[in-house]
Amino acid sequence: MRLHAFIRHTRELSQKLSHALLPVTCAHCSVPLWGDPIPFFCQPCWNTIHTLSGPKCPRCNLPFASPFALQHNPQHYCHSCRTRPPAFSQAWTPYPYQSPLKEAIGLLKYYGKISLADPLTRLMINTLKAIPPIDLIMPVPLHATRLRTREYNQALLLAHRLSAHIDIPLNYRTLIRTRETTPQTGLSRHDRLKNLRRCFAVTSPQAITEKNILLIDDVFTTGTTVNECAKTLRKAGSGNVYVVTLARIL
Ligand SMILES: [Zn+2]
Ligand SMILES: [Zn+2]
């Protein structure tokens, strides 16, 4: 613990020093930052990050347009979950993918700002209280080629911290991405499915047999990616698969 405090203190000191030499501004509102606790964001901007409120699909967490959607039946699923039940048992997507969270995820994912992994993980911790008992935490994997160019998997950074927080083992080797895929954004449902078909695999099924798994990703777009992961895990013999993603594209 003492070493931890020392490392934190040194990190804060070096952060303050570098800010004094090279002023950093808030990625959202551009005010200069002086020792703000969240890297790259001022506290007032960070405080505007709020969870999605109102009724949501109990399976995939899609927010319903009508505030009365669940009045008659609290188990009322959205159209997509009714017509094509997902392979995961339940998904939670606590925040809307909006500024300034959107910028924070972008900085973590594409600009190497790994120091944002801690505050972003803290945003997800409350959601974990809703999840049934699990045996393993897994990140949505990146393909080895993309991992080489990006050097890290942002979903693993979050999963690793969440696993330490709730003391559940992290497994980032068993579920792998076997094919490099083009980004899902802008593709039709048909093309998204085609793009992801058979692109995930389980390396050692015995590691996940009958295990209840929590799958972690940063952004939930249509759910196709996490659903393909869940399908692959279930086919390989896992127990229930639950999903937590930080932000949902609405
Ligand atoms: Zn700001
Ligand atoms: Zn749904």
In short:
This protein is 36% helix and 14% strand. With 250 residues, it is of the alpha/beta class.
Can you characterise this structure?
This protein is of the alpha/beta class and 250 residues long. The protein has two domains: 1-48, no CATH class; 54-248, Rossmann fold (3-Layer(aba) Sandwich). 36% of the residues lie in helices and 14% in strands. The protein is built from nine helices and nine strands. The strands form three sheets. Strands 3, 4, 5, 8 and 9 form a five-stranded parallel β-sheet that branches. Strands 1-2 form a two-stranded antiparallel ribbon. Strands 6-7 form a two-stranded antiparallel ribbon. Strand 8 (213-220), helix 9 (224-235) and strand 9 form a beta-alpha-beta unit. The longest helix is centred in the first third of the chain and has 20 residues, at 2-21. The N and C termini lie far apart (41 Å). One zinc ion binds at residues 57, 59-60, 62, 77-78, 80-81.
State the oligomer: single chain
Task: Estimate percent helicity.
Answer: 25-40%
Task: Encode the helix/strand succession as letters.
Answer: HEEHHEEHHEHHEHEEHE
Number of domains: 2
For this entry, give a set of tags:
single chain; alpha/beta; 14% strand; 9 strands; 36% helix; five-stranded parallel sheet; 9 helices; 250 residues; Rossmann fold; binds zinc ion; two-stranded antiparallel ribbon
